[in-house]
């Protein structure tokens, strides 16, 4: 507009598609898994294609203004975002079969409710994927409207104060969904005979479900204040500090699990093998397992999202000091502290009483039955007492809800030292050392930051998981060195060295209480997995690597450039392996408060599950004109 006022505007569109297809020759095979050994075979549960599209438009105005010796950089703007995420799944045969320790009968044997005979009793599942590609597409829509205003006030050319405030309103919507039938005829039959009388519809047959408008609505206010101070006025010693709060982005992962019609959902059923062939047939008998089909009723499905849900927020505090030692060489130190609150998690919820029951005590004290046992010693690991919790038969049916869980927390603090040498005398250098600590009760990986991630499903989630547990991405120390040297003829050699602490881990075990104890105490006997020690009690070996790049650029007429690069990854050929030291597996105690029973170790215990150490070379040639 003029030399002191500028207007910026822009739009952007990005789209990504990720197809995951199985071999067409295996499309008719079931998906097999062994719950005891972890073995998986047959074929994948389904073909899957996900498409993400994101449109973003923004506009801002910036004005530079001097008032009473104070320089202002005033800026205000608005943003609009429209995101669409599609998920499709299909397969000729949507059957899954869960074995146990080499047997197709997960539960061993049982009395058939139809014939009264003792037959093999197994656990089968059917995904809701359609038979044909494109027959079942879930669409999720997210819209965000944001406004912000900020000011950078510079006083006497030595101190700059940054002030900012941002408001975002995000909404999610699931449009009308139409789907075709699943591939395995048994699933359609079971859906009609067992599920439809309860849910009022068959999740495996042709169906249409109306739109769900405003699945979630987040209104978030994000303030920020920062200070940059030239301590001595010579531009060589700079002190920085900031305090801010910002909210999570409403990603498609938060929304995807809400729809009752989810192409990748599976329902489990008890299978009675009437003919003893060990294969799932139409003449066999099936019974409902523990799935709650109320999600298909609109009155209940909408309760899978808490009414007062809000965006998770992160509070951040930073301090920094930078000092120029000599020309082109500076060192800096920085401290950062972050704390995340209002983390979303999936919890057990009773729609009838509007009560969450993922913890023990309170009004739902009778819905959990504690079971104390002692896991016997294994290898170098000592005997370990542990208390797990089983659902009471008096508890409501399993129904999950996404809500802000106060027991979930994440904290991160770090101190970083950095050395920077700008390119001069034919060389440059960057180096940093970070000492950090990431603790809490909710992991940092992608599975812990999406809708219906099993973060707080039951009291067992918090067994041996105190607030100072190390998170999955915690790395106490990390070193990075990057150096470049310019040889004659403008030939550049760059070396990069990295080293970081290994990932944290802890022992786990799956406990299955004896049937007689469960019957006597009115508990539901089902496998329960818990930590035997606090996450981060143990840690894998540290990781390090050295990479190199050789680069040469040729400049021709009319600014044409030809660049040749040669990269060598893992230059020294370091080799390492991931040794599974978690004995894990199953523990079948003979009775409560006892160390007697049967211990089945993890099939991968004390074995290498992956090997690393490949040295690779990449050659590339680029042309710019």
Shape: globular
Overall mean pLDDT: 92
Strand content: over 45%
Secondary structure tally: strands: 38
**Widest beta sheet: strand line-up:** 1-4-5-9-10-13-14-17-18-24-25-26-27-32-33-38
Helicity range? under 10%
Unreliable runs? none
Largest β sheet strand count, sense and barrel closure: 16 strands, antiparallel
Using the CA coordinates, give the radius of gyration. 29 Å
Structural category is: mainly beta
Beginning-to-end CA distance, first to last residue: 33 Å
Output the number of helix runs: 4
Oligomeric nature of the chains: single chain
Give a description of the structure.
The protein is mainly β and 625 residues long. Helices cover 5% and strands 54% of the residues. The protein has a 16-stranded antiparallel beta sheet with strand order 1-4-5-9-10-13-14-17-18-24-25-26-27-32-33-38. The relative contact order is 0.09.
Short description:
The chain is mainly β. It is 5% helix and 54% strand. Strands 1-4-5-9-10-13-14-17-18-24-25-26-27-32-33-38 form a 16-stranded antiparallel beta sheet. Strands 2, 3, 6, 7, 8, 15 and 16 form a seven-stranded mixed beta sheet that branches.
């Amino acid at each position: 507009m003029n030399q002191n006022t500028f207007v910026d505007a822009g739009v952007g569109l990005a789209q990504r598609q990720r197809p995951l297809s199985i071999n067409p020759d295996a499309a008719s095979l079931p998906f097999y898994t062994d719950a005891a050994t972890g073995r998986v075979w047959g074929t994948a549960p389904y073909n899957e294609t996900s498409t993400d599209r994101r449109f973003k438009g923004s506009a801002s105005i910036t004005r530079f203004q001097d008032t009473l010796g104070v320089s202002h950089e005033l800026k205000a703007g608005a943003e609009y975002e429209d995101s669409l995420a599609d998920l499709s799944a299909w397969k000729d045969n949507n059957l899954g079969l869960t074995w146990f320790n080499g047997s197709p009968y997960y539960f061993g044997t049982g009395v058939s409710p139809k014939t009264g005979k003792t037959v093999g009793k197994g656990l089968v599942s059917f995904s809701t994927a359609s038979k044909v590609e494109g027959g079942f597409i879930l669409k999720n829509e997210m819209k965000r409207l944001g406004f912000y205003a900020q000011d950078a006030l510079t006083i006497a050319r030595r101190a700059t104060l940054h002030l900012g405030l941002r408001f975002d309103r995000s909404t999610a919507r699931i449009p009308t969904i139409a789907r075709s039938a699943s591939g395995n005829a048994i699933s359609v039959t079971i859906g009609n005979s067992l599920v439809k009388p309860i849910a009022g519809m068959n999740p495996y047959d042709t169906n249409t479900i109306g739109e769900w408008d405003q699945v979630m609505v987040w209104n978030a206010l994000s303030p920020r204040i920062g200070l940059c101070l030239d301590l001595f006025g010579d531009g060589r010693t700079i002190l920085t500090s900031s305090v801010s709060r910002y909210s999570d982005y409403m990603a498609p992962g938060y929304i995807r699990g809400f729809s009752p019609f989810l192409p990748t959902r599976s329902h489990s059923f008890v299978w009675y093998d009437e003919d003893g062939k060990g294969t799932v047939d139409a003449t066999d008998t099936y019974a409902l397992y523990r799935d709650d089909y109320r999600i298909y009723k609109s009155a209940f499905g909408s309760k899978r999202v808490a009414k007062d849900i809000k965006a998770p927020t992160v509070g951040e505090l930073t301090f920094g000091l930078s000092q120029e030692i000599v020309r082109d060489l500076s060192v800096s130190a920085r401290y950062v502290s972050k704390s995340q609150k209002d983390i979303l998690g999936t919890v057990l919820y009773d729609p009838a009483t509007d009560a969450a029951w993922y913890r023990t005590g309170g009004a739902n004290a009778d819905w959990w039955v504690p079971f104390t046992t002692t896991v016997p010693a294994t290898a170098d690991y000592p005997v370990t007492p542990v208390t797990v919790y089983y659902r009471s038969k008096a508890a409501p049916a399993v129904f999950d809800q996404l809500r802000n869980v106060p027991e979930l927390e994440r904290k991160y603090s770090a101190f970083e030292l950095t050395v920077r040498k700008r390119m001069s005398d034919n060389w440059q250098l960057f180096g940093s050392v970070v000492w950090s600590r990431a603790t809490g009760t909710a992991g940092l990986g992608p599975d812990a930051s999406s809708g219906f991630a099993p973060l707080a499903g039951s009291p067992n989630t918090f067994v041996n998981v105190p607030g100072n547990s190390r998170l999955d991405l915690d790395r106490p120390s990390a070193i990075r060195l990057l150096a470049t040297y310019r040889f004659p003829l403008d030939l550049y050699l760059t070396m990069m060295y990295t080293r970081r602490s290994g990932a944290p881990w802890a022992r786990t075990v799956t406990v299955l209480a004896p049937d007689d104890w469960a019957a006597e105490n009115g508990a539901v006997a089902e496998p329960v997995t818990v930590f035997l020690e606090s996450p981060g009690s143990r840690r894998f070996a540290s990781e390090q690597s050295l990479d190199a790049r050789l680069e040469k650029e040729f400049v021709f007429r009319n600014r044409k450039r030809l660049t040749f690069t040669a990269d060598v990854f893992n230059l020294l050929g370091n080799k390492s392996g991931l040794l599974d030291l978690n004995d894990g597996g199953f523990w079948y105690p003979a009775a409560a408060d006892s160390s007697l029973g049967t211990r089945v170790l993890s099939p991968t215990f004390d074995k290498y599950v992956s090997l690393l150490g490949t040295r690779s070379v990449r050659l590339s040639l680029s042309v710019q004109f």
